[in-house]
Amino acid sequence: MLTLYLLGILAAAIPLAAVFGRKNGLLRLVLLPLPAFAAFLLLAGFAAPEVLSSGSVSFSASWIPQLGVDLAFNLNGLGLLLALLVTGIGTLIIIYGHGYMGSHPHSNRLFALLYLFMFAMTGLAMADHLMVFFVFWELTSVSSYFLIGFQHKDKGARDNALQALLVTGLGGMALMAGFILMAMAGNSWLISELTLVGDEIKGHPQYFAILILVLLGAFTKSAQFPFHFWLPNAMSAPTPVSAYLHSATMVKAGIFLMFLLYPIIGGTGLWTILLTTTGSITLLLGGVYGLCQYDLKRILAGTTLAVLGLLTILLGIGTEKDILAALIFLIGHALYKATLFMVAGSVDHETGTRDTRVLGFLRKSMPWTAVIALLAAFSKMGLPPFFGFLGKEYTYKASIAHEWQWLLTAILIVGNAMILSLAVKAAILPFWRTSQGSLPKVPHEAPWSMRAGPLLLAVGGMFIGIFPHTMDPLLSAAKSAAMGYSLETEIKLWQGFNIPLMLSALTLLAGLTIVARNHWLESWTTRIPESISGRVYKGLLNGVMKFANWQTRALQSGYLHNYIFIITSVTLVLITFKLWRFGGLSNIEVTGSLSPGMVIVAVVMTVSLVLAVMTKSRLTALLALGLIGFGIAYIFAEFSAPDLAITQILVETLTIVLFAWAVFKLPEFGRPSSRNTLLRDAALSIVTGVLVTVLVLKSQTLDFGSAISGTLTEWSLAKAYGANVVNVILVDFRAIDTWGEIVVLTIAAIGIWSLASSRKGVKKEGNK
User: Fold this and answer.
1) How far apart are CA 329 and CA 401, in angstroms?
2) Are 210 and 185 in contact, with CB atoms under 8 Å apart?
3) What distance in Å separates the CA atoms of residue 147 and residue 156, rounded to the nearest whole number?
């Protein structure tokens, strides 16, 4: 039940934020962070001890039994780690958002959406059933869409929100297909059970398809190449959103998925090649992208891409050392990157710009923010004694133990050096170098609500760096969940003078060199064109929109004649296909004879049809169609269906009267259609009539099983308490269908009444 309490608290916070999130005051500052903080305390105080002792906390209840979907949750070490980051950092983001949003008229919408996202990410961290996991997965994409497009009057924000939704949403569709294949291969929908049969799934004939589909979902969500382009564009969201979703949580969902499914589909040669190659490209692209930028948030977006690529590399190698390094790096990155995004938001909030070309010497006007940025930058640069240093050390420790050690280590050194240089560019130079020019606003320190969260995260990164053993239990539980078997972990800040320490020193030297050559590199990297994948996305989107426009013009022309032609043509194609599926014209026999009355009615209907087509008088056409309707009523009566015959007579009579009343003052038909159009319509009509006739004859040769008429007759009095079988069928057995017909007639009556009312109004205006 603990998992339900967690989700219940966060779900209740959504309407709470919508109600109390608008007014800027102490009540909002105190009230809004409470649900997130309560969820964090519940995780840390109650869930964590049980997870660390027994390995997981589980809950299951029937949800959709018809589809075999249970509301199953299994909070293991990995899920606990992610949920603690989501709720802990989420609490600080809500506090930060209070100061950042101020008296914004739509601040309540932002806070409500943040809690919706927090709810989705927490559910994602705990979900055990694949379909439940997928529901929360998609909910993160939907909530992210609304958050990125928060400034909905800005077309750029709307376009970027749509881009993120389309990329992650299409990846989600691939993920769902992969989940279905995985469940079929492992004969279970529960992740905890699939972990036990990972070897069987890896040996399954569908393993390649499963792996590709699942990785498409993970790569799109975590912005891996070639889907990396959406993440920098998502920086159009307000800074609290960027700090929360696109650094600490949402983009980690794809990484979390790869962690979670490693025991099931990971560890193979194909897994290693795909993840290390994709991760390496993303790492280097992210670093280069950041070097091209002058906007603080886009610089930080570049480093986020780089770190996501680095984590993917480590997961691709997949040894115990690599998994541990990835976990340490993931925690360190969440702490310092959320801090730096909030610092960037504070700078923008108090100076009016995020342009590094004009920012400088802010330490004098924003001393607290400068210190916070410095602490976070040191962790990001991988300097001791910060937790970021441990992440870099353990990364190098894992890379040198691999058979491709020199290649991987070289890639990691280049990537880490660029991350280090971007930390200096985004978090140190704006505060500590000389002033670069005039600012839009006179800078001053941000309010405490915007400083408290970043300060706590920055100090926390230093604290756990100095006392890393405090993270041993959580890291052991997370590592055990990722590897699929129990493991103990002990991390240390100082491990002596060794190769990883030398590589860290080399990284520091390379990063400072990049900083020293910053202007030369910027002039070179600005010539790098827009990413190919970004252009491909735009081309595909434009193509889809053009096709949609053409399709709309073709199908929604506004002419009833065209609508009837399209509907009839599509129906003709579908009927022809079905007729072919059931054996075509074979076994068709025409038996029986027509009575003299039927022959006379057929002749009258044919003459009426020709008259309706050829006449230019609406009234004559209406009367001719009425004769056809009465002829159909006669046919019903001839074949012993008096109820249908009576209904047909009533409908035809009412139709003729109403239509005659509606059209008697309309002019004669205008210019008829062209000769080609008439020939086309005639051909379509004849073919459709012949085909429907053949289909009816064909249906008589098919065995549909026992007739239902006997059963309905038997049930009529015994179960529906009605002696009239026809009435019982209409009122009881086909009640919904009859209700639908009544609704249609009601709508038609309202339409006729509306036309009649408007006609009276026109007549009065004419009299005047």
Assistant:
1) 18
2) yes
3) 13
